[in-house]
Amino acid sequence: MRLPEGLRLPPYGSATLADVLPGAATALGVPVRRGGLPADPLDLSPAVAGARRVAVLLVDGLGAELVAAHPRQAPVLNALGSPAGTLSAPCPSTTPVSLVSLGTGLPPGSHGVLGFVTEVPGEGRTLNHVHWRDDPDPLQWQAQPTVFEQATAAGVSCTVVAPHAFAGSGLTRAAYRGADYASAFSPGDLVAGVHAALRTGERSLVYGYTAELDLTGHVRGVDSPHWRAQLGIVDRLVEQLVEGLPEDAVLLVTADHGMVDVPDSTRLDIGAEPALSDGVRLLAGEPRARYVHAEPGAVDDVLAAWRAVLGDRAWVVSRAEAVDSGVFGEVQDQLADRIGDVVALARGSWAFTDVQQDPFGSMLAAYHGSLTRAELAIPLLAARGRALG
Prior knowledge:
Elements: H1 20-27, H2 45-48, E1 53-59, H3 64-68, H4 75-79, E2 87-88, H5 95-104, H6 108-111, E3 117-120, E4 125-128, H7 138-141, H8 147-153, E5 157-163, H9 170-176, E6 180-184, H10 187-198, E7 204-210, H11 212-220, H12 225-243, E8 249-255, E9 260-261, E10 267-269, E11 280-286, E12 289-294, H13 299-310, E13 314-318, H14 319-325, E14 342-346, E15 351-353, E16 366-367, H15 373-376, E17 377-378, E18 381-384
Parallel strand pairs: 1-7, 1-8, 5-6, 5-7, 10-15
Antiparallel strand pairs: 2-17, 3-4, 8-18, 9-16, 11-12, 12-14, 13-14
Helix pairs in contact: 5-9, 10-12, 11-12
């Protein structure tokens, strides 16, 4: 099935976020296994040549188009070279899906974290992956080995430097297990933590994560002075990371998704459209990537109603059509029920909010989750330690 104009298919196994850590680990001598996908399709070995230490910094919400559009606020980022060009986020283009894709090196259909909020099949409840702790068990919900587990087994020292609040969370264990977790309490603490972790062991793989740019974008919008000021802080953070790189280290900078400002004119409140609730058992996903679970026997009617109401504002398809399209990569049979009976991916700047059930989430200025270029295109930038040239 072809996607409608304006939406893109993530090129799994060739140029997505899931290809970054496998390539970095391969360059460090780790025999990475990815379920049939190539170990290093980005050909990162030349960029990492000679390095014994690699740091990957993921800046939440740092879309490639946003970086290119702000050379004054982000001079360091715009001056860094790219070893593999622009990459793609997975589908949906949202943080939990992206982080687990990064950590496992696999598409969403293989690792099973298939949305910001998804149904727990058979239990009639949803799982918010950001608020996830122990239920369901992270090792069962996401059973694939991580790149960190494989690298640790190969003798590489692996560390995750990320906010203290996420230590031990379900998402952390799903995405990063196999690595030591070093809590960061501020941007400066993140920089120092990454530098310290890079100096451990004979070979080291370090992952750093910063979330404030994404939060600022959601609350203020990406076309705001607040977001641009926060981008400047990110640029300074990257500058400090580069300045303090060990001589035999490489820094890779990437992101989990971009972001789209959503004006009032392109918002549709699901609760204000009765036809969108008829036959619906459970609503999951997020405003630009909705999963609709229907009452028994009502799938066809729900699909028809959502197509009729949303029209060309979204790509509305059945679960089977979404799976067959390849937007999630190859979907394992036991994971398919986590996807809605109906999938609605926003086009343009549309968002499908739920004011009654999620008043705060419906008030945000910007969103992501769908398959527009602004949401999917993410950078891959590199800096090398002085001894590596």
